[in-house]
Specification:
There is one protein chain. It contains 13 helices and 15 strands. The chain is an alpha/beta fold. Strands 1, 2, 5, 6, 7, 8, 9, 10, 11, 14 and 15 form an eleven-stranded mixed beta sheet that branches. Strands 3-4 form a two-stranded antiparallel ribbon. A two-stranded antiparallel sheet has the order 12-13. It is globular, with a radius of gyration of 20 Å. The chain starts with 5 loop residues before the first strand and ends with a strand.
């Protein structure tokens, strides 16, 4: 039996460079950075060596009930807002759909850490009786999937996936399978993250994983550049509406891209560092291409994990060279994180949405802050300036702590 085909018909984005799919894409094409000084909490003390991040500013919640939003941790707010944007973008009339055939599968790496920190403070400084009864619904890992279902009345499969920075790519991959195997016709998928809290930032800071280029925030995230000194944390979310292709065509939907394949693997090497031969990353890409039935030399663009850390960037470039062999010299690759920072469990969702837009519009965003190429990262990283390019096939990589790897392969769709 042949697999059902799956397409992307709606995109919702909440990011440090703005909100809304087209607005975000235009900012990325312009090479605009969303990195700035942290305002969510005070880092202006000697104990903090990191003062910068990619924050979501001026979140437009539209017509959402302010009282409902107060019952959500920020990671859930970002997901719910993005879900409404995605529905509007897709043209779906949910009142005409069988809601038992619509699933919600979302990723997050950390979940409601903001709420957890707040209530730990209440417990420590006041009393157990003062801890909010809404603590669990706000901080639970699947709060975003549950609230999206409540907002839209969706009755199909509903769960959250956590695999660190690969979370939303895994969620999207399982969403693909869910439609292919006939368990749903439509899936709201993607991921969200809001870990810019004192504990969230301090945890990565004490690992020496973050950039300390505090005086030049917009130039701090510099994947593949020899001068990179760590990643920059970001926050936000993305919801992609995946739909069975025939269902989308029957309703005359605009289609961004077709989701062709999914691959995942693990390094089984180190809890935080990638395995230096890149075997796990390589296997993830090979599995995605095999699942999609795409030859390596058919791929024209890769949206890299590209974190701006020394080990990750060179290991991913090695994996690309091993996967694509001589064709690697012809690949165009870029890192969205150079402008929005690392959104952890939401990064894959934002980056796949951007990759869909890239194929749909025939335009590739740059990797900014490319001043001195690292000899170990000698690929075409689309340095500093966007370019026009008609791409047929692309992949998007996400790799996470725990050695986990996930790759999504897509194809341009000519509606």
């Amino acid at each position: 039996m042949s697999k059902r085909r799956v397409v992307v018909t709606g995109l919702g984005l909440v990011t440090p460079v703005g909100q809304g799919a087209e607005r975000v894409f235009e900012a990325l094409l312009a090479g605009r950075s969303g990195i700035g000084r942290i305002t969510h909490f005070d880092t202006d003390t000697p104990e903090w060596s990191v003062h910068i991040a990619g924050e979501v500013r001026d979140l437009d919640t539209g017509n959402l009930d302010p009282r409902a939003l107060k019952r959500m941790d920020p990671f859930t707010q970002y997901a719910v807002v993005a879900s409404h944007e995605a529905v509007l973008d897709s043209g779906l009339d949910l009142d005409k759909e069988d809601r038992t055939r619509i699933a919600v599968l979302m990723g997050t790496g950390i979940g409601g850490i903001c709420e957890l920190e707040i209530q730990c403070g209440v417990l420590r400084e006041k009393s157990p009786r003062r801890v909010s009864p809404l603590t669990v619904p706000r901080m639970m890992f699947n709060a975003h999937t549950g609230m999206i279902a409540l907002e839209h009345g969706l009755l199909g499969p509903n769960y959250a996936i956590g695999s660190a920075c690969a979370s939303s790519n895994h969620a999207i991959g399982i969403a693909l399978r869910t439609i292919q195997y006939g368990d749903a016709d439509i899936v709201f998928t993607g991921g969200s993250e809001a870990a810019l809290t004192p504990v969230g930032v301090a945890s990565f800071m004490t690992m020496k994983a973050l950039s300390t280029r505090n005086e030049e925030p917009e130039r701090a995230s510099r994947p593949f550049d020899k001068g990179r000194d760590g990643f920059v944390m970001g926050e936000g979310g993305a919801v992609l509406i995946l739909e069975e292709r025939e269902h989308a065509l029957r309703r005359g939907a605009r289609i961004y891209a077709e989701v062709k394949g999914f691959g995942s693997s693990d390094d089984a090497h180190h809890i935080t560092a990638p395995e230096e031969s890149a075997e796990g990353m390589l296997r993830s890409m090979q599995l995605a291409l095999a699942d999609a039935r795409i030859a390596p030399d058919q791929v024209g663009y890769v949206n890299c994990h590209g974190t701006s850390t020394e080990l990750n960037d060179k290991t991913e470039c090695l994996a690309l060279k091993r996967c694509f062999a001589d064709h690697a010299k012809k690949l165009q690759v870029s890192s969205t994180k150079s402008m929005i920072g690392h959104l952890l469990g939401a990064s894959g969702a934002v980056e796949l949405a951007v990759t869909c837009l890239s194929l749909h519009h025939g335009r590739l965003h740059p990797t900014i802050n490319q001043d001195e190429p690292d000899p170990d990262c000698d690929l075409d990283t689309i340095p500093n300036v966007a370019r026009e390019a008609r791409i047929e096939y692309a992949i998007s990589n996400s790799f996470g702590f725990g050695g986990t790897n996930a790759t999504i392969a897509i194809q341009r769709h000519d509606s």
